[in-house]
């Protein structure tokens, strides 16, 4: 079993984790969350999202959050932007890495962004152009890579086409998202292989939701294919408001526990991460989605 010696974790809790919360999380708690996460050794913490506040009211305070965090040297703080307007809002508060997002399923992308896939790619062209001129790094997301709540099956060729388009536009990394968490390991591996024939593996990341309890198994199958960047959300928070039935993301604590158990380095202090996840579940007023944190609490 060949595994990478190290994995970079992209922590998406403050964005993907919180965007689906119906009760407003105080801005100060969002800032504290990002700062606590960056203190655990994580090198990438997706801080917030400059999407339309009408679509995602929970993250309407994106500018205040971004302006309030303490940026650590060596940590990247990407933010989600759906269009040039979001890019400008992000830049106004000093963001120097952004993420754009589309889907492999036309129906999902319409629900999520009110645009078809090609139309969303057209929206990103001026974002990528500005980013290049500004020296801003751009990450790309492809959603619904293993199934769509509206369309059902998603052809691998569609996933590969969209990933290739994002990479060709200038995204340094393309994250492949099983938005509704329906994938199983062999399907995840086949999907990654299909994409890796179009986009170099070092430019790929994986993003699993744990709806059916398959996220860690899917990660392992993909690590064996050579991927070395994995998205996760502390405390297993999250879900997409436009992905019916989707549960939380893979919990970062559980990912770190598995990787360290496999001898794969992450640079993350698991104790500090568990503390942060437990603190967050207190803020959200519900049990943590991390099995590791639950096990530690009952030990
Ligand atoms: P639209 O309504 O079609 O946009 O939304 P529009 O361009 O027609 O503008 C309508 C209004 O929104 C205007 O305001 C704009 O100014 C405003 P009005 O004139 O009516 O007062 N507006 C904005 N305001 C602030 N910031 C902006 C912005 N853009 C427009 N950036 C749009 C189109 C894409 C904006 C909208 O559909 C949107 O924001 N969607 C985001 C949905 C979302 O955040 N989904 C979750 C993230 S994706 C995800 O979770 C999946 C992922 O984790 C990977 C995975 O799991 O698979 C990434
Ligand atoms: Mg997601």
TrEMBL record:
Checking CDD domains in the record gives: DRE_TIM_HMGL
Is Aminoacyl-tRNA synthetase tagged as a keyword? Answer: no
Report the family membership: Belongs to the HMG-CoA lyase family.
Keyword Metal-binding belongs to the record: yes
* Molecular function per GO: lyase activity
Q: What domain of life?
A: Bacteria
**What InterPro entries does the annotation carry?**
Aldolase_TIM, HMGL, PYR_CT
> Which residue numbers delimit the Pyruvate carboxyltransferase domain?
7-274
Pfam families recorded: HMGL-like
Q: What is this protein called?
A: Hydroxymethylglutaryl-CoA lyase
According to its UniProt entry, this protein's organism is Luteimonas colneyensis
Lineage per the UniProt record? Bacteria, Pseudomonadati, Pseudomonadota, Gammaproteobacteria, Lysobacterales
């Amino acid at each position: 079993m060949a595994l990478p010696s190290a994995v970079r974790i992209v922590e998406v809790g403050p964005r993907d984790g919180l965007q689906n919360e119906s009760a407003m999380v105080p801005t100060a708690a969002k800032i504290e969350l990002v700062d606590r996460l960056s203190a655990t050794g994580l090198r990438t913490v997706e801080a917030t999202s400059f999407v339309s506040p009408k679509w995602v009211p929970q993250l309407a305070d994106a500018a205040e959050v971004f302006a309030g965090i303490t940026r650590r040297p060596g940590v990247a703080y990407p933010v989600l932007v759906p269009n040039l307007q979001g890019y400008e809002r992000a830049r106004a508060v000093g963001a120097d890495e952004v993420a754009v997002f589309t889907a492999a399923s036309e129906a999902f992308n319409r629900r999520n962004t009110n645009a078809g896939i090609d139309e969303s790619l057209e929206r990103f062209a001026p974002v990528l152009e500005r980013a290049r001129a500004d020296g801003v790094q751009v990450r790309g997301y492809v959603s619904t890579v293993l199934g769509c709540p509206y369309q059902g099956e998603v052809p691998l060729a569609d996933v590969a086409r969209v990933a290739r388009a994002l990479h060709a536009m200038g995204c340094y990394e393309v994250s492949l998202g099983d938005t509704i968490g329906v994938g199983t390991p062999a399907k995840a591996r086949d999907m990654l292989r299909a994409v890796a024939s179009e986009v170099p593996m070092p430019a790929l990341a994986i993003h699993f939701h744990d709806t059916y309890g398959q996220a860690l198994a899917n990660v392992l199958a993909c690590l064996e294919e050579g991927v070395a960047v994995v998205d996760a959300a502390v405390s297993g928070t999250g879900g997409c408001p436009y992905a019916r039935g989707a549960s939380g993301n893979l919990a970062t604590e559980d990912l770190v526990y598995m990787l360290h158990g496999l001898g794969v380095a992450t640079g993350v202090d698991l104790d500090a991460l568990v503390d942060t996840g437990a603190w967050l579940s207190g803020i959200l007023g519900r049990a943590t989605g991390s099995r590791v944190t639950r096990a530690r609490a009952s030990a």
